[in-house]
């Protein structure tokens, strides 16, 4: 069996989480995102989790190498034997090179299909999405007041929880996040283009249309 290795790149509010979660369910592959993994490691009180918690409790960023260790441990776990979908990792050339080295060692005698999908969205639209984004306090489901509103105002369709606006979902904070993305993460585009792995998807349209483009790209 060919192992499917998928990496998704894109700025904040490009739809990475929505698309990767949907794709993971359809393909029955683990959806791996940094935030959830860090929380899981901390909850499990693992060695990596304890170290990460120390940085987070002090208001510091978790070092790139530690994040990479946690991600790599997950992609070599039993439930990722047939592949995985990476959401928002790697975030830098440093992390990409760590990941590449580990995958090359692990896949030396295996067949694997690796693809990097970049979600392209105009910056004005990204800002609009962020400002209109709401999250459920109960289950974490994300809505958009314009494009994907809840059936009942401020109430989650899934669990009935209350919806709220995250403190970083403002224009000012979003602009800083974009600046960070384009400074640190955008160089990954050239990195993966040079390896012949990168495919761009127009994510300016509806979630369903974006998803169909992704399925076309991966041959589904």
Brief characterization of the structure:
This protein is α/β, with parallel strands linked by helices and 220 residues long. Helices cover 47% and strands 17% of the residues. Strand 5 (133-136) and strand 6 form a beta hairpin.
Describe the model.
- It is a single chain.
- The protein has nine helices and eight strands.
- Strands 2-3-1-4-8 form a five-stranded parallel sheet, sandwiched between helices. A three-stranded antiparallel sheet has the order 6-5-7.
- The model has no long low-confidence stretch (mean pLDDT 88).
- It starts with a strand and ends with a helix.
- 47% of the residues lie in helices and 17% in strands.
- It has 220 residues and is an alpha/beta fold.
- The chain is globular.
The geometry reads as globular
Order of helices and strands: EHEHHHEHEHEEEHHEH
Using only CA atoms, what is the Rg?
A: 18 Å
CA(first)-CA(last) distance: 16 Å
The total count of helices amounts to 9
Mean pLDDT across residues? 88
Q: Profile the largest sheet.
A: 5 strands, parallel
Structural class: alpha/beta
What is the number of strand segments? Answer: 8
What topology, given as strand order, has the largest sheet? 2-3-1-4-8
Report low-confidence residues grouped into runs of 5 or more.
Answer: none
Strand content: 15-25%
Helix content: 40-55%
């Amino acid at each position: 069996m060919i192992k499917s290795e998928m990496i998704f790149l894109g700025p904040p509010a490009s739809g990475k989480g929505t698309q990767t979660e949907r794709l993971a369910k359809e393909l029955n592959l683990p959806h791996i995102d940094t935030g959830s993994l860090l929380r899981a490691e901390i909850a499990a009180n693992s060695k990596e989790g304890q170290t990460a918690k120390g940085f987070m409790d002090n208001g510091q960023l978790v070092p790139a190498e530690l994040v990479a260790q946690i991600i790599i441990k997950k992609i070599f776990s039993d439930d990722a034997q047939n592949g995985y979908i990476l959401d928002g990792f790697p975030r830098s050339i440093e992390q990409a090179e760590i990941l590449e080295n580990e995958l090359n060692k692990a896949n030396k005698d295996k067949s694997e299909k690796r693809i990097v999908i970049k979600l392209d969205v105009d910056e004005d639209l990204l800002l609009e999405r962020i400002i209109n984004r709401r999250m459920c306090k109960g289950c974490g489901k994300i809505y958009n007041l314009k494009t994907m509103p809840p059936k009942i105002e401020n109430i989650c369709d899934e669990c009935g929880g209350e919806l709220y606006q995250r403190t970083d979902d403002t224009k000012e904070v979003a602009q800083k996040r974009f600046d960070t993305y384009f400074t640190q993460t955008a160089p990954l585009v050239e990195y993966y283009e040079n390896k012949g792995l990168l495919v761009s998807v127009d994510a300016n349209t509806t979630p369903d249309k974006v998803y169909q483009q992704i399925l076309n790209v991966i041959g589904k």
